[in-house]
C-alpha cells in the first residue's frame, strides 16, 4: 500500500541534497494538520506530510483504531503493525524516489498517534532515520517488549515532549517512554510543558532549535 502525502521541497539548498522531515499526524486528522509547524522551520528541510492509511471519515484518518477506556487506550495491534511496515517501506524507498533528498538526514516528527508510530519505528528499526521528535504520544506494549529483548548499537536521536496536563494521553505515558528509551540507551532529551494534548508555541520553538542542531551535527 502506498501512502498519500503532501511534499514541500526545501526553500534553501545549502548542499547538494536536502535533509528531510516526515510529519506523522494523530488519529482523526490528516496530512494537512501538521504543515503549519513547518512555517518557521529551518528552510533547508524538504517536508513530507503523510496521510495515515485507515479512513475514519471525511478528512479523518488513523494509523490504527484505538478505544480509550478507563483502563487506558486499547489499540488494534495488527493495524499498528501493518502501518509500521508501510512506513518502513516508504522511508526506505524515499531516496530512490527523490534523489534530491539526503538519506543520512531523515527526521520524523509525530504528534499523538503519529508519535506512537515514530517510536515504534525508532525502537524496531533503529537505523531507519537520524532523529525523532515525539510529541504527546506513548510507547505500545508490544514495542516496549521488543526493545527489552535487544541491544542497540545504533539509534536515532529523540526529542520527547509531553504536556503535564495531557487529558488524552496522560503525562505518565511520557514518563513510561522516557524509561523505555533510557533502558535502551537511546540518546534522547525529555521536555515537559504546562499543556494539555496540543502543541504549544514553546514546544515549536524547542523542536525547531533541536532540529537545527541535529542537522548541524552531520550524519550519524
Summarize this structure briefly.
Pfam families: Abhydrolase_2. By secondary structure, the protein is of the alpha/beta class. The protein has helices spanning about 75-95, 115-125, 140-150, 170-185, 200-215, and strands at about 5-10, 20-25, 45-50, 55, 60, 65-70, 70-75, 100-110, 130-135, 155-165, 190-195.
Task: Describe the protein's architecture and organization.
The protein is an alpha/beta fold and 220 residues long. The chain has a single domain (5-216), classed as Alpha/Beta hydrolase fold, catalytic domain (Rossmann fold), CATH 3.40.50.1820. Helix content is 32%, strand content 27%. The protein is built from five helices and eleven strands; from the N terminus they run βββββββαβαβαβαβα. A seven-stranded mixed β-sheet has the order 1-3-2-8-9-10-11, sandwiched between helices. The protein has a two-stranded antiparallel ribbon with strand order 4-5. The chain has a two-stranded antiparallel ribbon with strand order 6-7. Strand 4 and strand 5 (60-62) form a beta hairpin. Helix 2 (113-124) packs parallel to helix 3. It is globular. The two termini are 30 Å apart. The mean pLDDT is 92. Its EC number is 3.1.1.1. Residues 13-212 form the Phospholipase/carboxylesterase/thioesterase domain. Pfam families: Abhydrolase_2. InterPro entries: AB_hydrolase_fold (IPR029058), LYPA1-2/EST-like (IPR050565), PLipase/COase/thioEstase (IPR003140). Keywords: Hydrolase.
Amino acid at each position: 500500500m502506498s501512502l498519500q502525502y503532501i511534499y514541500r521541497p526545501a526553500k534553501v539548498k545549502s548542499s547538494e541534497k536536502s535533509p528531510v522531515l516526515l510529519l506523522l499526524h494523530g488519529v482523526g486528522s490528516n496530512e494537512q494538520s501538521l504543515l503549519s509547524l513547518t512555517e518557521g522551520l529551518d528552510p533547508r528541510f524538504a517536508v513530507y506530510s503523510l496521510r495515515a492509511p485507515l479512513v475514519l471519515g471525511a478528512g479523518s484518518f488513523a494509523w490504527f483504531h484505538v478505544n480509550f477506556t478507563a483502563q487506558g487506550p486499547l489499540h488494534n495491534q495488527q493495524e499498528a503493525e501493518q502501518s509500521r511496515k508501510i512506513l518502513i517501506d516508504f522511508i526506505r524507498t524515499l531516496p530512490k524516489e527523490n534523489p534530491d533528498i539526503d538519506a543520512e538526514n531523515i527526521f520524523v516528527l509525530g504528534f499523538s498517534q503519529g508519535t506512537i508510530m515514530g517510536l515504534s519505528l525508532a525502537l524496531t528499526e533503529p537505523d531507519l532515520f537520524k532523529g525523532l521528535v515525539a510529541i504527546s504520544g506513548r510507547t505500545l506494549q508490544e514495542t516496549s517488549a521488543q526493545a527489552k529483548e535487544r541491544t542497540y548499537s545504533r539509534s536515532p536521536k529523540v526529542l520527547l515532549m509531553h504536556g503535564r496536563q495531557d487529558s488524552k494521553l496522560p503525562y505518565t505515558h511520557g514518563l513510561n517512554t522516557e524509561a523505555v528509551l533510557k533502558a535502551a540507551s537511546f540518546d534522547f532529551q525529555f521536555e515537559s510543558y504546562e499543556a494539555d494534548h496540543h502543541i504549544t508555541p514553546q514546544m515549536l520553538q524547542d523542536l525547531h532549535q533541536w532540529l537545527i542542531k541535529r542537522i548541524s551535527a552531520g550524519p550519524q
